[in-house]
């Protein structure tokens, strides 16, 4: 099949960007979307033009490196699928595709389709962990975890940190990402001691990173390649309210 | 060069404890005065960085990805072994040790493997405490399954995403230390050279992948956890960015490279579909627990699978290896797939594939049970191929997956350059000539959480390192060397892309140094690679500039190193005149086609010392001794 691509080209964070038109010829239906771009890039290099920059690594849908908008949809039209796992059999001859980077204040464009998602790491660094230093753990089976909780935890822990939820959200909120980590740790017995403190710290950090507020629109869930449920945001909000009431920092007097 | 493996003497059961007791400690108040550079943020690098920072060292961690959470450990699917014996099925530290030494075809050090089996139990405890959501039984206990080549259920797993969950555990521990200011994280920063001052590894040169800035970092020790070199084959199950540049440039600075020819071909990957293919996708071999592997009995049988009656199918693994059946180790399964395809019995358009069939398991356990066990893998298969494995069998074919070779390290994980430590897949140590399933995650975390933090302290406590900074002549020289190399690659402006060279190189390595090798082929390959390397430096085309994000430039440096490494692999494979584990030399096989070792002449690790590009490196041999598990021909019949 033959496709027409309009791709966002931007030399660096400060430069102005623009859409540039490319033809993708003789695309096989067995190619992945990124392999189609690889072929376009090989053609560009042969013509002496700089290739389109995009983040990618594992190409198995698990590392979370890849992702951009295809006709306004994060990771393209196939639900529950990262762009690296999207295959060209889902497109047809003559399709016109617009490729743009994630758009969010917290994710500045680095080049072309590449953005800086360092804000996600800083949210995790603020509290997205259980504080257990190496060597201080008790026997694994000394902490029974009901299967149901283990499953809820795993569903949330499947988040790959790609940023599609932020890109799809009209508010550019990081609620699905943050809620996923809070749910992953918050439904496990190991996560209880820091549960409320964790949510306060992470939510404050998300605000400082210039992510917006969640207004329960649900675009994030619709584009999440790992199908993280909206429920994780409800869990986060509940823990946040409870934490705000009962887990505020101790006053100077009590220390 | 002297190889001193510093192996402990005395009973193996207490060797690691005695070694730890003999190690010198660093005063807690002094730890923060020591700087440690950790390159790589996968299971080994992230766990080491976090643990060293918890101990109080001043740690800097580097990764080329945009976040430490993206390292390729994340893609490991199946599980992690530990000798917990929670299933009461007769497992023990000794049995895990025994299985691993045997599985490695008697080409690993006993003491290393024993230690690995010992600390495996601590790893599970640590990961559970971090909140890794391992699979559970209904009553809340940890669930286990058996995994490729093991007859006990000792594998812990988190659906088909165990690597992801273990890495997120280590990543979160690392982020906790970053947040606390104990680790300085450098994402999108690629190591391009090692700085050796007065014989000790003291720093690295990096290039910032966004700004192109070339920088030196000086510290008291350097740790490489940069993974394996499977991408030398171009098509592999590794991430596109996985590369050998860090270990290769350390090799060129004097670190010995051991057993480069030991590469693992994984039996269950999705077959190649076309020339544009950029990578291969692994299907976890846990699928072999319930899937049955078969091909048609008749060569050239092109009927669709459901039209081939039971009696015309050859379940060749079950037939040849009745006691292990579909669960034979990876090297054996891969070679058998190749053999049936070579006989013209392969399936799919290319004839390079075999069936992995769940029909029996679905009938026995129900579709729901299969979906629970393998749902995400089956979905992934369907996404890539457009075929539904619940209805028709999967097609699979072997692909390069893991490299057992790597930088030589002693029992304390230090390379032949004092102060340069190598952990995880980047070193050569624990898997011998073949790695068993679910033991890569175990080794990465063992090195990072429980071995390196002790041995590194002992090195620092015993060394008297002088003051050094980026103005040292060695640091300056390394820095300008990197700048010159970058300029050189950008100035060639030839006719061919980096990827086209890489693809051609990979094909040579796969054809001649892949699943089966022979002396004339290896000699031919070495020559062809050398010629192609010449051409590369004359006619590669790298566009753009050095002072910006330039993915072609990054790739060009990595491929340049793969060329040199590929030559070394062929040389090592040529010199090892025996078959063992993943290294199968056609000249050395038993009458029924199994690998034939030569313990009399090759019971050693081959450590190569760099002598200059295009010059023959110097071979050093570290003899292996087996006092507990006596070498025998591996039999899975």
Folded structure, characterized:
The complex is a heterodimer of chains A (255) and B (637). Chain A is α+β, with helices and mostly antiparallel strands and 255 residues long. Chain A has two domains: 3-111, Roll (Ubiquitin-like (UB roll)), CATH 3.10.20; 117-254, Alpha-helical ferredoxin (Fumarate Reductase Iron-sulfur Protein, Chain B, domain 2, Orthogonal Bundle), CATH 1.10.1060.10. Chain A has eight helices and seven strands; from the N terminus they run ββαβββββααααααα. Chain A has helices at 33-46, 118-127, 147-157, 164-168, 175-186, 195-208, 219-223, 231-246; strands at residues 3-9, 18-24, 69-70, 73-74, 96-100, 109-111, 114-115. In chain A, the strands form two sheets. Chain A has a five-stranded mixed β-sheet with strand order 2-1-5-3-4. In chain A, helix 3 runs antiparallel to helix 5, helix 5 (175-186) runs antiparallel to helix 6 and helix 6 (195-208) packs across helix 8. The longest helix of chain A is centred in the C-terminal third of the chain and has 16 residues, at 231-246. Chain A starts with a strand and ends in a 9-residue tail after the last helix. Chain B has 637 residues and is an alpha+beta fold. Among the domains of chain B are: 265-400, Alpha-Beta Complex (Flavocytochrome C3, Chain A, domain 1), CATH 3.90.700.10; 473-604, Fumarate reductase/succinate dehydrogenase flavoprotein-like, C-terminal domain (Methane Monooxygenase Hydroxylase, Chain G, domain 1, Up-down Bundle), CATH 1.20.58.100. Chain B has helices spanning 15-22, 28-31, 43-55, 93-103, 110-130, 162-179, 245-252, 316-320, 330-342, 359-365, 367-385, 440-462, 473-492, 498-513, 519-539, 551-575, 599-602; strands at residues 35-39, 58-62, 80-81, 155-156, 183-186, 189-197, 200-208, 214-218, 221-224, 257-258, 263-269, 292-296, 313-314, 354-357, 394-403, 406-407, 420-422, 604-609, 618-623. Chain B has a five-stranded parallel β-sheet. In chain B, strands 11-15-14-12-13 form a five-stranded antiparallel β-sheet. In chain B, strands 16-10-18-19 form a four-stranded antiparallel β-sheet. In chain B, a hairpin with an 8-residue loop joins strand 18 and strand 19. In chain B, helix 14 (498-513) packs parallel to helix 16 (551-575). The radius of gyration of chain B is 24 Å and the shape is globular. The model of chain B has no long low-confidence stretch (mean pLDDT 95). Classes of the chains: A alpha+beta (255), B alpha+beta (637). Chains A and B meet through helix 1, helix 2 and helix 3 of A and helix 3, helix 5, helix 6, helix 11 and helix 12 of B.
């Amino acid at each position: 099949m033959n496709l027409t691509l309009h791709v966002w080209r931007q030399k660096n964070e400060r430069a102005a960007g623009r859409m540039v038109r490319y033809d993708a010829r003789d695309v096989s239906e067995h190619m992945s979307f990124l392999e189609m771009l690889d072929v376009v890039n090989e053609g560009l290099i042969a013509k002496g033009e700089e290739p389109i920059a995009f983040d990618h690594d594992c190409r198995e849908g698990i590392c979370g490196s890849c992702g951009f908008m295809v006709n306004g949809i994060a990771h393209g039209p196939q639900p529950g699928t990262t762009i690296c796992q999207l295959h060209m059999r889902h497109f047809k001859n003559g399709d016109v595709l617009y490729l743009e980077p994630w758009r969010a204040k917290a994710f500045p464009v680095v080049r072309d389709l590449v953005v800086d998602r360092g804000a996600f790491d800083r949210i995790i660094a603020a509290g997205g962990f259980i504080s257990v230093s190496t060597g201080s753990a008790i026997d694994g089976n000394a902490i029974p975890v009901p299967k149901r909780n283990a499953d809820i935890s795993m569903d949330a822990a499947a988040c790959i940190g790609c940023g599609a939820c932020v890109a799809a959200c009209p508010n550019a909120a990081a609620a699905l990402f943050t809620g996923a980590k809070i749910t992953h740790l918050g439904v496990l017995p190991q996560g209880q001691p820091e549960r409320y403190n964790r949510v306060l710290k992470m939510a404050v950090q998300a605000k400082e990173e210039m992510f917006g507020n969640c207004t329960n629109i649900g675009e994030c869930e619709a584009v999440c390649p790992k199908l993280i449920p909206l429920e994780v945001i409800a869990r986060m909000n509940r823990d946040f309210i409870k934490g705000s009431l009962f887990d505020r920092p101790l006053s100077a007097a009590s220390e | 060069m002297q190889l001193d493996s510093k192996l402990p003497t005395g009973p193996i059961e207490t060797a690691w404890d005695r070694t730890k007791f003999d190690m010198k400690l660093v005063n807690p108040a002094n730890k923060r005065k020591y700087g440690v550079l950790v390159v790589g943020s996968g299971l080994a690098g992230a766990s080491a960085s976090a643990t060293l920072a918890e101990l109080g060292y001043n740690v800097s961690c580097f990764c080329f990805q945009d976040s430490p959470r993206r390292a390729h450990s994340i893609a490991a699917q199946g599980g992690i072994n530990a000798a917990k014996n929670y299933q009461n099925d007769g497992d023990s530290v000794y049995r895990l040790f025994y299985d691993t030494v045997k599985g490695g075809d008697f080409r690993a050090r006993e003491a290393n493997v024993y230690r690995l089996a010992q600390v495996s139990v601590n790893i599970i405890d640590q990961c559970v405490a971090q909140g890794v959501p391992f699979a559970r039984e209904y009553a809340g206990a940890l669930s286990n399954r058996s995994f490729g080549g093991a007859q006990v259920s000792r594998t812990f797993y988190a659906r088909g995403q165990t690597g992801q969950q273990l890495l997120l555990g280590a990543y979160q521990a690392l982020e906790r230390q970053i947040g606390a200011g104990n680790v300085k994280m450098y994402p999108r920063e690629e190591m391009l050279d090692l700085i050796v001052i007065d014989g000790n590894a003291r720093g690295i040169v990096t290039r910032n992948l966004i700004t192109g800035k070339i920088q030196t970092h000086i510290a008291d020790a350097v740790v490489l956890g940069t993974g394996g070199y499977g991408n030398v084959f171009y098509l592999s199950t590794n991430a596109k960015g996985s590369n050998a540049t860090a270990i290769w440039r350390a090799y060129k600075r004097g670190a010995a490279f051991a057993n480069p020819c030991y590469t693992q071909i994984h039996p269950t990957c999705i077959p190649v579909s076309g020339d544009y293919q950029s990578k291969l996708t692994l299907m976890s071999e846990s699928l072999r627990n319930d899937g049955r592997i078969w091909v048609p009995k008749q060569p050239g049988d092109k009927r669709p699978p459901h039209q081939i009656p039971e009696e015309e199918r050859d379940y060749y693994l079950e037939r040849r290896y009745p006691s292990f059946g579909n669960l034979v180790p990876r090297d054996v399964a891969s070679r058998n797939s190749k053999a049936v395809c070579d006989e013209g019995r392969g399936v799919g358009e290319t004839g390079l594939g075999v069936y992995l069939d769940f029909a029996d398991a679905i009938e026995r356990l129900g579709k729901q049970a299969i979906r629970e066990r393998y749902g995400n893998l089956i979905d992934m298969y369907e996404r890539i191929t457009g075929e539904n494995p619940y209805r028709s069998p999967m097609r699979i074919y072997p692909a390069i997956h893991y490299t057992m070779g790597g930088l030589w390290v002693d029992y304390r994980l230090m390379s032949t350059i004092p102060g340069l430590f190598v952990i995880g897949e980047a070193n050569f140590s624990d898997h011998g000539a073949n790695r068993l399933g679910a033991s890569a995650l175990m080794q990465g975390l063992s090195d990072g959480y429980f071995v390196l933090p002790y041995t590194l302290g002992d090195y620092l406590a015993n060394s008297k390192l002088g003051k050094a900074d980026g103005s040292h002549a060695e640091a300056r020289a390394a820095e300008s060397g990197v700048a010159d190399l970058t300029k050189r690659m950008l100035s060639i402006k030839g006719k061919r892309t980096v990827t086209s060279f890489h693809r051609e190189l990979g094909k040579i390595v796969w054809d001649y140094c892949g699943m089966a090798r022979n002396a004339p082929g290896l000699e031919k390959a070495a020559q062809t690679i050398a010629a192609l390397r010449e051409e590369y430096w004359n006619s590669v085309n790298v566009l753009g500039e050095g002072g910006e994000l330039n993915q072609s430039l990054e790739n060009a440096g990595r491929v340049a190193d793969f060329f040199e490494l590929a030559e070394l692999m062929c040389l090592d494979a040529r010199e090892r005149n025996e078959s063992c584990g993943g290294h199968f030399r056609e000249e050395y096989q038993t009458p029924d086609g199994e690998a034939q070792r030569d313990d009399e002449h090759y019971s050693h690790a081959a450590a190569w010392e760099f002598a200059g590009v295009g010059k023959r490196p110097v071979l050093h041999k570290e003899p292996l001794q087996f006092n507990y598990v006596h070498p025998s021909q591996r039999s899975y019949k």
